Amino acid sequence: MRRALRFAAAIVLVGCAPVAAQTRPAPKSAPKPKPVPFERVYLSLNGMFQTAGSDFEDRLTYRENAEDAQVDTNYSLKSGPGLDIAGGFVVVRGLGIGVGVTHFSQSSGASITASIPHPFFFNQSRSITGDVGELKREELGVHLQVRGVFPIGRHMQVMMFGGPSFYKVEQVLVSSIRYTDSYPYDVAAFDGAVTTSGEESKIGANLGGDFGYFFTRQVGVGIGAQYMRANLDFPSADGGTVDVKAGGFQVVGGLRLRF
């Protein structure tokens, strides 16, 4: 009898074991980590230093004393400070779009070499040389940019960018010269230049990089290097054109903000 009871109890325990295993609660899966938040809006306010741009020249030809007079003007551009502002929006992590604005103003000089026909004799032109100062150049650039945004840890961020640029440039050009001479008119002396101011616009391109260090998630400082360029054609006084290049290599530095 006891053997029969033991046998029955063993059968019951074996049958209940799968049921107990099925009713045991499954272990909970680990929660998925939340994505690290990132700021979508960026803004930079910079001082800028633009290196000397490409010098350019203009040759004027006109009739005087029944022959062709010729005036060659070589314009020298100076380096100088400017202003740079840029901002934009991060579309997806690592990729943003934005716009930058640069302003540069500088006054530079030009050297003049002229050949003025003699009033009495053919093929005996007088040579004239002189210098002109304070020829103002003003550049305003608007730059559309696609930006690669690469955070490095919590405090650093690198950006690479490029895109088209729109430049509006105002340039003072020499339109004619003044000179003095006296009998027998074998020698003439430079006595100044007549200038005119022109304004032209053109589409160009830009590219560059920027490094920022952030003291908090929103506020930091940074430094960058960029190259902007547009080629403009200004009308010359004798009906030709003057090739003027705007922009150049620029170093920027200042405040960085992100939100």
Structure described in brief:
Helices cover 8% and strands 69% of the residues. With 259 residues, the chain is mainly β.
Blueprint (SSEs and pairs):
Blueprint: H1 2-23, E1 41-50, E2 56-64, E3 67-75, E4 80-92, E5 95-116, E6 126-152, E7 156-181, E8 188-214, E9 219-235, E10 241-258
Antiparallel strand pairs: 1-4, 1-10, 2-3, 3-5, 4-5, 5-6, 6-7, 7-8, 8-9, 9-10
Describe the overall structure:
The protein has 259 residues and is mainly β. It is 8% helix and 69% strand. The protein is built from one helix and ten strands; from the N terminus they run αββββββββββ. Strand 2 and strand 3 form a beta hairpin.
Main attributes?
259 residues, mainly beta, Porin, 10 strands, elongated
Major sheet characteristics: 8 strands, antiparallel, barrel
- Structural class call reads mainly beta
Q: Helicity level, as a percent range?
A: under 10%
**Mean pLDDT value:** 88
> For the record, what CATH class applies?
Mainly Beta
Give the uncertain stretches in residue-range form: 7-23
Sheet with most strands: strand arrangement: 1-4-5-6-7-8-9-10
- Strand tally: 10
Give helix and strand order, one letter per element, not per position. Answer: HEEEEEEEEEE
Please state roughly what percent of the residues sit in beta strands, choosing from under 5%, 5-15%, 15-25%, 25-35%, 35-45% or over 45%. over 45%
Rg calc: 37 Å
| N-to-C CA distance | 83 Å
**Global outline:** elongated
For this structure, the CATH topology is Porin
> In total, how many domains does the architecture comprise?
1
